[in-house]
Amino acid sequence: MSKLTHLDDKGRAAMVDVSPKDATERVASAEAVVTLSEQAFALVLSGNVAKGDVRAIARIAGIMAAKKTSDLIPLCHPLALSHVGIEIEPIPEKHALHIVASAKTHGPTGVEMEAMTAASVAALTIYDMVKAVDRSCVIETVRLLTKSGGKSGSFSRADATGKKPT
Asked: Rounded distance, CA 118 to CA 100, Å?
C-alpha cells in the first residue's frame, strides 16, 4: 500500500522534497459543474447580470487562483505556470455550467492542485455573481480529469472509471 506523501516518517505534515525529481512537462485538467436555477442560467447566458459577464469574470478568477494555489493549500509547492486555461460551457438540459480548467508547467512536480483550484474558484465566482437571484445554486463534481508528466505517469478519469467525464 502506498503511503501519504505529505507526512514524514513520524506522521507529521511535511512538504515533499521535489529536488531529486526530474523537471518534465506537467499538464493537468479538472472540472467543476455549477447547477443554477432556470432564471439564473438564462441571465448568465444573456450576459445581463448586474456584476458583468459571469463567464469572463469566472475565467479570470480561475486563472488568478491557479497562480495562487501554493498560498491557499499549505503544502503545495509554488510553481512557475506556463499556461492556465478555463473553458465554461453551458449544459442547457441541467441549467448548469461545466467548467474545465487546465494547467501546465515544466518542473519537478505536478499541476493537479492548480487545475482543481482554478476550477473550484471559477465555480465559486459564478456563485458569487448569481447569488442575488439564486442562492440555491450548487457547485458539484469538482474533480481531476487528467494529468500527465512525472514518474507516476498519466491519469485519465475516463481510463480509471470507464466512463466519459461529465
From this structure: 9
Active centre residues (catalytic): 128
Better-predicted residue by pLDDT, 163 or 67: 67
Sheet harboring 96-107: ordered strands across? Answer: 81-91, 96-107, 24-35, 138-148, 155-156
Distances, alpha carbon 108 to alpha carbons 29, 75, 144, in Å: 18, 15, 19
Domains of the chain in sequence order: 24-147 (3.30.70.640)
CB 61 within 8 A of CB 155: no
Give residue 17's identity as a one-letter amino acid code.
D
Query: In residues, how long is the chain?
Result: 166
Return d(Cα 117, Cα 68) in angstroms, integer: 9
Query: Region 123-127: what's the mean pLDDT?
Result: 98
Question: How far from each other are the two terminal CA atoms of the chain, in whole angstroms?
Answer: 30
With contact defined as beta carbons under 8 Å apart, do 43 and 130 qualify?
yes
Q: What pLDDT, on a 0 to 100 scale, did the predictor assign at position 31?
A: 97
In sequence order, what DSSP letters do the residues of 28-77 get, joined into one string? EEEEEEEE--HHHHHHHHHT--TT--HHHHHHHHHHHHHHTHHHHSTTPP
pLDDT tens per residue across span 65-90: 999 999 999 999 999 999 999 999 99
pLDDT tens-place string over residues 25-39: 999 999 999 999 999
